[in-house]
Amino acid sequence: MSGTESRVVSNALHASILVIDDEEVMREILEALLSREGHRVRLASSAEEGLELARTLPFDAAIVDVMLPGMDGITALEELKKTNDELPVIMITAFASVENAIVAMKRGAFDYITKPFKNDEVVVVVRNALERSRLVQENRSLRQSVQEQYQSFANIIGRSPKMKQVFDLIIQAAPSRSTILIEGESGTGKELVARAIHTNSPRADRNFVTVNSGNLPPDLLESTLFGHVKGAFTGAIYPKKGLFDLADKGSIFFDEMGNIPLETQAKLLRAMQEREFMRLGGMETIKVDARIIAATNVDLRKMVEDGRFREDLYYRLHVITIHLPPLRERKSDIPLLTQHFLAKYGEENAKGELELAAEALDLLMDYDWPGNVRELENVIERAVVLSSGSRIGPDLIPNDVRRAPVFQLPDVAVPPEGISFKEVITDFEKRLIESTLEAAGGVQKRAAELLHIKPTTLNEMIKRYDIRPRRRKPGTDGDTAPASPPRRPPPSSDEVVADVVSSRYRGMLDDE
Ligand SMILES: Nc1ncnc2c1ncn2[C@@H]1O[C@H](COP(=O)(O)OP(=O)(O)OP(=O)(O)O)[C@@H](O)[C@H]1O
Ligand SMILES: [Mg+2]
Q: What does the DSSP 8-state code read for residue 228?
């Protein structure tokens, strides 16, 4: 017996199997066969009795005779599937009625055995069924743990497809020693990712050393990185170790690679390539084994072209690149991030459970977040600190977040049969006016301002399209509402034009 086979058998041992057959002899044969294989067997002489058992006990597989008095076997199969749709059900049919077997397979039976059967046949089919059961279960628990990871992986919150890709890359790249470059705008979470790589690597129990290269002059930066010998420069009274020493067997994180001056870049390249360095003012080479993780919010390629970044270092760094998308490209993460920060700062400020008003979330979703997650975090922290009740309303969202978003006409899917240009435009015009009027609290003069048209033009269109003022949503304060183009449009999925407006929202979730 091969290794695989023995694994299957041992896993299939002690399964719990339900047998439904009205013939006593058959029940006895099956019970003997399956018990011999090490399984626990429960017998039922009718579908009703079997179902009763299935509703109270967990089974790993069931064997059901098609021909049963009372409820027939096919119906029993369907009912069993209702108690557990992953339960493998093996049907027993008379040799003469293969049609029944086909029907059963169509209704979701795992397999069928025809009477008279050979003992081995039953054993093999049951084994297969149990193996499948085990795989399904394994897969489910794997999926669950992956999903849990994906809600938040090593403190990185996000479940947008773009963040899932980032998590995948971290998981793949972390175990190696390879240099990693993390690209992304300021505040996108580059440092979080760098730490996640370290903590998921075999170096996790060693140091994670951050180099804030800031605006250090080259000499000072070099001595910080590599240490110096006594007398290396005026004031160097004692020899000193550097950050590379600290990072030995661990990871060293350059939080802004673009800030490293050219002189230091050469030494860094050597440390990366040869895994050795010299102290400032020193002659001795020192071996070091530090994994390099670098982040940048500038385009290093461009710096190479401008002669401000060494090309060889650039290529050394680009072994594995993780791109962190700006928050505006993964807006579907905003609600989850907001929840996370509300909980974090709610607890920190002893505010208990806080709730974000829908209007406030609308504002957060509408904004472009140039400062990315850091900016969102700050906005939520401020709101939590300033809040008096348990509900965070739109009034607690700062004015610059209420800035009118740039209106982008989304992509329109043209059906194969085409659409009427005129109708679409007319309908769009009409809806745009309706939504703007709503945003302007029904005040035509204000709506005209918002649309950058003359009030008389707006008035003409209102008459032409026979637009009636819609009542404002309760609780929407027309005066403090941000001066923005239409907010969330009315839901009406069946109309192309409604789609044009609403896909502004959908688009931001879909493009990922
Ligand atoms: N996905 C995320 N989940 C939770 N918190 C996040 C996430 N992304 C960023 N943050 C938080 O936002 C703040 C900024 O993150 P971080 O310092 O990692 O950004 P950065 O990309 O390194 O920015 P910079 O380029 O300005 O250094 C931190 O407080 C961090 O905890
Ligand atoms: Mg940073």
A: B
Q: Of 322, 346, 108, 376, which Cα lies nearest the Cα of 196?
A: 322
Nearest CA to ligand 1 atom 8: 189
132 lines ligand 1 (CB under 6 A): no
Q: How far is the CA of 196 from the centre of ligand 2 (A)?
A: 13
Angle (CA) 50 55 56, round 5°:
100
Residues 105/80, Cβ–Cβ less than 8 Å: no
Sequence-distant (6+) residues with CB within 8 A of 318 are 181
Q: Which atom of ligand 1 is nearest to the CA of 297?
A: 25
Given a contact cutoff of 8 angstroms between Cβ atoms, the answer to whether 301 and 291 are in contact is: no
Taking the CA atoms of 233, 234, 235 and 238 in sequence, report the sign of the dihedral they define: positive
Please give the model's pTM, rounded to 2 decimal places: 0.56
* Contacts with 188 (C-beta within 8 Å, 6 or more apart), sequence order: 324, 325, 326, 327, 372, 373
Which residue has a Cα nearest atom 10 of ligand 1?
Answer: 189
Instruction: Give the pLDDT confidence of 76-116 residue by residue, as tens digits.
Output: 999 999 998 889 999 998 766 778 888 888 888 999 898 88
Does the C-beta of 192 come closer than 6 Å to ligand 1?
Answer: yes
